[in-house]
Amino acid sequence: MAFGKLIVWGGGHLFNCLSLSFLKNEDFSKVLVISRSKSSPKWNEVLCDGATILVTRPFSTWLEERMGDGWPQVRQCLAKANRIVMISSTGVFSEVGGKEVTEESPLIADHPYVFAEKDISQLAPTCVLRCAGLYDESKGPHRYYLKNKRMPGGGEAFVNLLHYDDLSKLVAALLTRKTVLTGIFNVSDNHPTRRGEILSCINNWGGEWASIEAFSDGGEDSQVGATLALGKKVHCKLWDELSIEPKYKKFTDLKI
Fold first, then answer.
1. The Cα angle at residue 196 between residues 190 and 202, in degrees rounded to 5
2. Which of 82, 98, 106, 128 has the fewest C-beta atoms under 10 angstroms from its C-beta?
3. What angle do helix axes 195-203 and 141-148 make, rounded to 10 degrees?
4. What is the per-residue pLDDT for 21?
5. Which of 235, 154, 236, 138 is nearest to 197 (CA)?
6. 3-state secondary structure the chain
7. Are 192 and 234 in contact (CB under 8 A)?
8. Separation CA 123–CA 35 (nearest Å)
């Protein structure tokens, strides 16, 4: 069954995973990726009437783009969509004391993702996915730790994660769902993991991974750890909503 045109605003690693493993050729009659690439189509060149739009835009640049001359054209196109699935972040939550957060938990009011969520979801039926930290073999906290040879923050702080393949599975289900699901949903593997547990897992991979160390309790390193506090525990109800289970139940299932 073809769902018409799919427009992906941003592309990136998520779209690569999605297109390689989870979207079938017959799902959409046409797929367009709009990015900053010189070869990318422009919004004023695209017919968006009735299209499905996936927003993977990195919102570190969103406010800059929002203030640009082209925003009215983007807004006009988004308003013509049949549905929008938008990738956001659990970084919008203000909780740092180690408590569980739901979709109704307090937000960081001036976070750019919060502005983007409100701006886009008022234009067309929108499903916002507030994602935990994404990872796979090639991307994620383990690659950051390996590059820097140490893990920032205290070992007791919670980290919420989600494998790219599992997010791709959810997104594909939402894009091809007969009835449009709208609203805001937290997305994680439902297994908040302490940083110390992640470090132990990485060290056990051996080789270069065994050399990664945690920050010490004193000096400059303790300042970094203090700002991270205890983090948050993200609960995801979307797995039950869509009757899907994540393949990677927790980060420690990953093998390198």
1. 90
2. 106
3. 70
4. 83
5. 154
6. CCCCEEEEECCHHHHHHHHHHCCCCCCCCEEEEECCCCCCCCHHHCCCCCCEEEECCCCCCHHHHHCCCCHHHHHHHHCCCCEEEEEEEHHHECCCEEEEECCCCCECCCCHHHHHHHHHHCCCCEEEEEECEEECCCCCHHHHHHHHCEECCCCCCEECEEEHHHHHHHHHHHHCCCCCCCEEEEECCCCCEEHHHHHHHHHCCCHHHHHCEECCCCHHHHHHHHHHCCEEEECCCHHHHHCCCCCCCCHHHCCC
7. yes
8. 20
User: CA 48: distance to chain centroid?
Assistant: 24
Amino acid sitting at position 152: P
What tokens appear for 43 in the block? 């919004």
Q: If we measure between CA atoms, which residue out of 155, 162, 161, 163 comes closest to residue 228?
A: 155
Query: What are the pLDDT tens digits along the chain (256 aa)?
Result: 567 899 999 888 998 898 888 888 778 988 999 888 888 888 888 889 999 999 997 665 666 667 677 788 888 999 999 999 999 999 999 998 999 999 999 999 988 899 889 989 999 999 999 999 999 999 998 998 888 888 776 788 899 999 999 999 999 999 999 999 999 999 999 999 998 899 999 999 999 999 888 764 444 444 444 445 889 999 999 999 999 999 999 999 888 8
Contact (CB, 8 A) for 98 and 232: yes
Question: How many CB atoms sit inside 10 A of residue 212's CB?
Answer: 18
Q: Which residues contact 172 (CB under 8 A, 6 or more apart)?
A: 18, 22, 23, 27
pTM of the model: 0.90
**Phi, psi values for residue 128, rounded to 5°:** -95, 125
